[in-house]
Amino acid sequence: MLMGCDSKELMVVLSTCKLQAGRDCIAKRLTLPQATDMRDSLAKIIYASLFNWLVEQINTSLEVGKLRTGRSISILDIYGFESFKNNSFEQFCINYANERLQQHFNRHLFKLEQEEYEGDGIDWTKVEFKDNQECLDLIEKKPIGLVSLLDEESNFPKATDTTFANKLKHHLKANSCFRGERRGHGFRVSHYAGEVLYDTNGFLEKNRDPLHVDLIQLLSSCNCQLLNLFSSKMRDKSLKPSLSESMNQSVITKFKSQLFKLMNKLEDTTPHFIRCIKPNSNHLPGVYEENHVLQQLRCCGVLEIVRISRSGYHTRMTHQDLAARYGFLLDTKLSQDPLSTSDSIMKQFNLPPEMYQVGYRKIYLRTGQIGLLEERREYVLQGVIGLQKHLRGYKSREYFHNMKKSALILQSYIRGENARRNYIAMQTPATVSSEVTKELDAVIHLQSVVRRWFVRKQLKNSVELKKQSHNEKKKTRRKSRRKVSEVKDLPLEQFQVQPWDLADLQSRVQKVETAIMQKEDENTALKEELQRFEERWIKHETRMKSMEETWQKHISSMQMSLEAACNIMTPDKTASHGNDSEDTISPGTPTKELKGGSLDDIKDIYVEVDQRRVVFDEDVKRHVEIDELEQVSIAIEKQHAEEELSRLKSRFEKWKKDYKARLRGTKARLRLNGHRNWCGKKSF
């Protein structure tokens, strides 16, 4: 059902095998184990093809990665060594891959580190660790390795699993990592993680893994598109000579070539290893088996790593880096090379000779020694920073004091200049002040004249605007009266009341009612505003009366002063000499100096009094005119509002009566014609 093929065809393919004998094709029935192997072979073909197809799809979607040439991070997940009761060809391949990866692990953590010590001339005692090169030679060495012998035996058509086991015992008995079983088809291999017993049953058949033509034809006849795609790819590979050779290779040969490609990629990277340790073999939480964990640590080589880390030099720095970072801590600065500088630093801090080693290119320190150098460096840097802090503070204070002195000197010069200017201004004659006062009086007089002109202009503009608005209101009223009269003259017979017309008329009636309410609200607002204007008018009248009384008092006092001046200027009968006299005028009146008994000054006073009286009369008239205009305009607006309200009310009543009469007529006509009462129960 999943493959989309016929069940009978599937049964035939799994239970028979076609053999080509010349031009004839013979169908051979398979035994039950052979049919089982055929079924497993079909499942492996589908699984492998599906896995490759998924990898291709993922690589296609991530194809943008080829355009980038930067660094990359890759993750390789490995299951680990496997050892079961029955270990077959699959366990052999997995353990072979883990053996090769374990050598890569040992090379980076053991071999390369010790080779670096030896190459840099360090006095180093070699740490012995388990090397798996002999086991790899047992598997990979040609022509008598396990892989070579398996391929050789797979090529013989009459070879069996028993002949393969005997061949291994004959050729590999000298290797210490190999041990053949006396009875049965098994053999033992001493891997890095431990000894594993393998059963050779099925080794040859699984290594050959023949691709049957019947299976390819079955996949091509399926309805599933993926299976058709897999079968077409298999046919294309069989037709191409370069790909057909790779297809004819054994499984172990393909596995070996893929493993070597992986190792080449790993050699080009900087590896970081993560070891996963199982606390127990039963997969239970909170259970810790010491022997099981210790065995895993030994198999993974973790104990050897700990021994090398403890006996080795954890911190490594080149002589150039050490001199650049800690060279300033030396008491005597000499032009030395980096190697001599590193040696001098170690001697100055009295580090024990067993805690460091000086190599040709690097200096090697044990754990904790670099901390002493860092503490000393931090202490010296803190002292340097404190000295710099005090020096910067001293410079800043000195700069501040200099700026303060300069500011005080500049301020003293400015104050002196201002004082000198004020003194010169005080020494100038009084004529200058009199001229300034005259100019100010002239400016004030000019400003008063201009302000008066602006006020008169604004008053004229406001009066003209009110007149224009009044005329426009009259025109609109006349037009509305004409329209109403025209509507009244039309005969009632021309109006044919329709349902939508009735609804429209009702809405218009409501709008007129709301308009009347708004007008009434506006009328009340105008009345309140009229009251406010009347109160303001009363205040203005009282103020004008008080101003008239004060001006009358001033005029009477000035007249009295004039009469006194005239009496003084007339020749006195009792006086014998016409001396110059000087009299003080009554208090509260302006004084005037009279010289030589001449009448010119008295005439000037008369003229001034007359001018002031004229100006006062004009101001009083203007105030009275403004108040009268405001009162008249308020009264006119009030009268217009009342007239318009009464006019609207009368128009509404007339229209309402007319509308009722027309509505009765239409109802009567409709009843005569036999229509229902569609106008509703609303009464007017």
TrEMBL record:
Keywords: Actin-binding, ATP-binding, Calmodulin-binding, Coiled coil, Motor protein, Myosin, Nucleotide-binding, Repeat. Residues 472-482 have a biased composition (Basic residues). SMART domains: IQ (SM00015), MYSc (SM00242). The keyword Repeat applies. One of its GO terms (cellular component) is myosin complex. Residues 502-536 form a coiled coil. The keyword Repeat applies. PROSITE patterns: IQ (PS50096), MYOSIN_MOTOR (PS51456). Residues 259-281 are annotated as: Actin-binding. Residues 1-378 form the Myosin motor domain. Residues 465-485, 572-591 are annotated as: Disordered. InterPro entries: IQ_motif_EF-hand-BS (IPR000048), Kinesin_motor_dom_sf (IPR036961), Myosin_head_motor_dom-like (IPR001609), P-loop_NTPase (IPR027417). PANTHER family: MYOSIN, MYOSIN-4. Belongs to the TRAFAC class myosin-kinesin ATPase superfamily. Myosin family. This is Myosin motor domain-containing protein. The lineage of its organism: Eukaryota, Viridiplantae, Streptophyta, Embryophyta, Tracheophyta.
